[in-house]
Amino acid sequence: MQSYFTKFSYSKARENYHVAVLTNRAVLCDRDERPSMTGIVSYGVYIPKYRIKPSQVAHAWGKEVKGVENSLGVFEKAVASVDEDAVTLAVESSFRALTNGQIEPEKIGAITIGSESHPYAVKPSSTTVAGILGMQGEYLAVDLEFACKAGTAGIQLLSSLVEAKKAQYCLAIGSDVAQAKPSDVLEYTAGSAAAAFILGRDNLIAELLDFTSYSSDTPDFWRKDNEKFPSHAGRFTGGPAYFAHVGKASELIFEKTKMKPSDFDYAVFHMPNGKFPKEAARKLGFSEQQLKPGFVVPFIGNPYSASSMVGLAATLDIAKNGDKIFVCSYGSGAGADAFVFEVTKNITAHQTKNKESVAKQIKNKQYIDYSLLAKNIISKYRI
Q: Do 270 and 335 meet the contact criterion of CB atoms below 8 Å apart?
């Protein structure tokens, strides 16, 4: 279905006013008066309470401990319990999204779960989550995989169903109990979390103004079917992988929307560590202040598919009406999804209803030693 809006042009000077090309005729319209758009109706996040410091992981393997947290920019990571996996995390975040938005599960017409850690190789996670939530039989369910951007890929795909009026609401989830080979540097930062976003057309808390993607065959991170743990290409994961794709996707969305970094109030990037997103933001022209609200990696590590989605949720937790949010996720293999959101006046009511903000969950923590990680490895990977 052809969208009403085929092009947007924004500037700070216009504040809440936008130029839209509507039926080939330029019109100036207030945000509250323009035709219904697609966007976020509600969201929920679940972060396990257990935490461990990278230095403790290093110590367990007899590796250098001094300065490991500072070198990564990650000071602790969230750890799933032995009875938690990508499905249970997805269920928790989705229940919170439904509760915050006061939406009946029967009204959800489609669900996607992006993850690198689906419990089954052949059995969908999405139908399991849908069944637990109480969704009825007439819905589309899809499991997605594209490394750490599988969750945001769901937002792109499902927004089209909503825009085409094929579904009243859709549920896009990013959930991971991040995989890492024991003693590998990835184990220092691989975290656990889930974020669920309900998309719709009415009572939006944030309008999805536009999005784009940039992809290429860049093998920086992989796990073959018969392998238990992923492999990575070391420093190759930086320049030709993360920075190249995040930079290109960001430039494409700037060109597409005629916007620039200074037009945004906040920016969120995929956070594999504490260094990459800051460097990407600096190169593109974003300030650390724009990055700060959604910069959660120092406190929970990298929950893979949930990383940028938790960052977006943390930003929405403190955003105000009219704020513009830039988001760029990244997935190894490789690709990046870039989004432009604008917060609406409904955000205040949602913030009031949301009893489990990202900041609250970050503070609600219990430190553990390496034994819980070892139990997870033994139970989940049968070794």
A: no
User: Which pair of tokens denotes residue 305?
Assistant: 């598919």
Q: What is the mean pLDDT of residues 92-117?
A: 98
> How confident is residue 350, by pLDDT bands cut at 50, 70 and 90?
very high
What token pair was written down for 300?
A: 């929970």
The alpha-carbon radius of gyration of the chain (Å, integer) is 20
Amino acid at 341: F
22 in the same domain as 117:
no
Whether pLDDT at 233 is above 90 = no
In sequence order, the 6+-apart residues with CB closer than 8 A to the CB of 167 are 108, 109, 110, 140, 158, 161
Looking at the structure of the chain, the number of domains it has is: 3
256, 199: one domain: no
Question: Taking a C-beta distance cutoff of 8 angstroms, is the pair 220, 233 a contact?
Answer: yes
CA distance 339 to 208: 7
State the helix-helix crossing angle for 307-318 and 150-163, rounded to 10 degrees.
Answer: 60
Question: Which one of the listed residues 148, 170, 245, 350 is annotated catalytic?
Answer: 148
- Which tens digit of pLDDT belongs to each residue from 20-39? 323 232 333 455 555 569 99
Give the span between the Cα atoms of 169 and 76, in whole angstroms: 35
Q: Which candidate, 224, 216, 219, 141, places its Cα nearest to that of 179?
A: 224
The answer on 3 and 146 residing in a single domain is: no
Among the options 270, 328, 342, 356, which is catalytic?
A: 270
Asked if 33 is an active-site residue, the reply is no
Q: Which of 247, 302, 293 is nearest to 270 (CA)?
A: 302
26 and 82 housed in the same domain: no
Q: Is the CB of residue 114 less than 8 Å from the CB of residue 144?
A: yes
Range of the domain at 336: 208-343
Task: Take residue 221 and report the two structure tokens written for it.
Answer: 């991170």
Position 267, amino acid: A
Q: What is the pLDDT of residues 204-216, one digit of tens each?
A: 999 999 999 999 9
Q: Which of 84, 116, 187, 207 is catalytic?
A: 116
Residue 116 among the catalytic residues: yes
- Asked if 29 is an active-site residue, the reply is no
pTM: 0.90
Residue 293's CATH number? 3.40.47.10
If asked whether residues 216 and 190 sit together in one domain, one would say no
